[in-house]
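writing this on my phone so excuse typos. first protein, seq and then structure
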Amino acid sequence: MIRGFWALLMLAVTGVGLAGCSSQAALPTKTDPAPSPVQAAPAKQPGRVLKPAAHESALSTYSNLEYGVAFRYPRNFALAEDGGLEEDKTEDNSGVRSQEELGREEPGAILLATLIVPDDAYPNTTFAGGSVQFAVNRYLAAGSCRQSLLSRLGDSSGRNGAETIQGVQFAWIDNDEGDASTEFFERDYAGFTNGACYEFFLRVGVGAGDDSDRTRLPDENKILGHMEKVVASLQFEAQPVSVLDGAPSLQGTRGKH
């Protein structure tokens, strides 16, 4: 009886051991997960420097806060402000006027800026010089602004017309004069706004051709067209008007709505 009991006990222990072994064998082998590949950081691209457009970098800006105006002009043009011209510049073929000359022709006119075209701007031609001058006259009324333009040139039969620049109508007129060696082609503009007459004077000097030279006559109309871009870039800024500067009917009404 006792022997039978021990036999059964041994059989039970052996079964439990086999079951344990069988259970462990059924479990899958644990493996460490494969490391994820390290992604390389994207290479830093060098910062891009924005360059100004070619036509922008070739221009400079003239501005006058007192008169509330500004315009753009080619950077290679020489600029003289407030009539500050060298004496020899008034005697060359650029056709510029000094402040004294302009004052005699048009009393009250103030020469604000003078641009002088480089002598070598039109190579292999008889281009003798060119200039753009800008002036203002606060003593001219709207009606006399254009009339002064015509009377100063002394040739009201010249080709003329009108052009609107930033909402302001400018009259213009062509004229030419010269001697045996140099002829000057002129185109002047006059427009009235902000209680003043604003004027541009364009000049192109053309030397006489010579059969022995291998140079050609320049196209004065094309050169004047280049200068007109300066005129077309004119900008007006609103200027503060004091009570004393206002019309009599409006004085004393500031602040009322």
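second protein below, same order as before
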Amino acid sequence: MDADLVASLPERYRGCPSFSFGDSPELANELAALVISGRKIATVNTLDAPDCPKLNELWIVLDGAGRPVCVIETIELIPRRFDEVDEAFAFDEREGDRSLAFWRDAHESYFRRIGVFSPDMPLLCERFRLVEVFAPMDVDA
């Protein structure tokens, strides 16, 4: 994150790691808006992702332009294979129609785009809570 952006954060968050959701600015904006709205309370990572969260860790969520928009805290981490993700978790990700079918479709597409998809790939299923919002964002839906 840019030094000016770090300096603009409240001091208590300046040492926190940061990330943006997805693999495009548009997806980062869409998913960050869902978090800020309170709808999105879960996400997944591959186990070997460089930015895997730890329990009770605070993370700064960036929008598609790399600006900090909110802080989340990891409250649950459960390892599961892709094909073991259940309807309750898919619903908590709150994307699309919130169904398991949509979740599988969207996440298979994402993991294929980044070159790591396998039906039995190990994932880290994370639930989080919204701690603080820095910049409001509109949610389409």
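The longest helix spans residues 100-113. thats all i got for now
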